[in-house]
Amino acid sequence: xxxxxxxxxxxxxxxxxxxxxxxxxxxxxxxxxxxxxxxxxxxxxxxxxxxxxxxxxxxxxxxxxxxxxxxxxxxxxxxxxxxxxxxxxxxxxxxxxxxxxxxxxxxxxxxxxxxxxxxxxxxxxxxxxxxxxxxxxxxxxxxxxxxxxxxxxxxxxxxxxxxxxxxxxxxxxxxxxxxxxxxxxxxxxxxxxxxxxxxxxxxxxxxxxxxxxxxxxxxxxxxxxxxxxxxxxxxxx
Amino acid sequence: xxxxxxxxxxxxxxxxxxxxxxxxxxxxxxxxxxxxxxxxxxxxxxxxxxxxxxxxxxxxxxxxxxxxxxxxxxxxxxxxxxxxxxxxxxxxxxxxxxxxxxxxxxxxxxxxxxxxxxxxxxxxxxxxxxxxxxxxxxxxxxxxxxxxxxxxxxxxxxxxxxxxxxxxxxxxxxxxxxxxxxxxxxxxxxxxxxxxxxxxxxxxxxxxxxxxxxxxxxxxxxxxxxxxxxxxxxxxx
Lengths: 237, 237
Fold this sequence. Notes:
The structure is a homodimer. The first copy, chain A, is an alpha/beta fold.
């Protein structure tokens, strides 16, 4: 089987490992209560995440100098707060809200699945999130990574091929010894194009109950799993 | 106290966390038995490690293009094998010996001390070892790092200040929020020069029983500890 050579699993993080939308809504609603706000945090989370692809595209095109994801999240937040009618937060409160991305909560199967997978494989992030964000998130959610790999280390964002190649290079492995695990088909296709193995994990609730993603997997993917426990099962962990 | 701000501990690895000399001697002596060799592996280990500083200096001066530590270890090994009269090893055997650096064993207090320290601090490597080497070592020895930071990520070797600065930058911290833990005074002085906090840990046996290092710590260091358990105690872990 083509996946027998796999030594390391590299995980997309936002949406694949952690529930960014649900986490932002939960923290935002607490802020509504403590600060007397009436923000629709589901819309806020969607708008915040909606700035993600365009802001990375600006970096890729060179319209913005290299800016890590914390920086892009802050630029977007500073635009969105007035749009959503939020005023009166002091800098410490804005900073705390900004860092909600460091405190995202895992999907219910994530920690248990990763813990099983770690017995057999090297587990790494391979995320557009910056290193500090990923380290703080792992610390808070007890995600058992062996290594934090990030777009920040090569100053390029996925789906730039250099990011996927960096995972194999830094781990001293051939591309076919590394498998990307992701809930996003574009991410997996870009990884496959440089020779990584690919595992698609369905995360039907990533964008909320009203926006189910396309869960029909590209037949080119090496594995398709319902969640991380199913992935562990399929990989004999 | 000046160390109250510390959020992350960054560890030198070779000699500080793991016993490179004892590990190489133990594996080498097994090779003597299985291959009928008569190599003096203590001398071999010292000679191999002796190539470390000069080979990194060649990279720093630009006499060698960027080469990670695995690469430098292999160049040195290929020179040392004939010097020590070793012949007849096939490529798989030489490769296995080369990768002994990925299998170094921790000092007796390392895992227990790190496990306590990890409850309160972000724990990272900050080593001239390359990422693959450090990941494989951690996996084998169950070293509980939160993040693997390496000279390889900035393509410069300690004591280049860029390496120490990269630890703070990648963790999103100020230099005085990061403490370097090391058994080597030059390493600590270079870290202190860019604003990191410094903890000296004595490793009297690093170079063997006949070559005790200078254990009189520079008074500029923030902490001096007998081992990692003592360090955990001093840091209230």
